[in-house]
Amino acid sequence: MDQQLVRTVLQVLKGHIGDGEWADLKARMPTSLSAVLR
After folding, report:
1. Helix (H, G, I), strand (E, B) or coil at 27
2. Is the dihedral of CA 33, 35, 31, 13 positive or negative?
3. pTM of whole model > 0.70?
């Protein structure tokens, strides 16, 4: 998986949803995806 692509898509998504929704989304992500955000 291209980590830069995933990071870019998630950053764009984060700009379009609220903080609470972002926290919910991160909590439901597989560990491999949430690790890209660290």
Report:
1. helix
2. negative
3. no
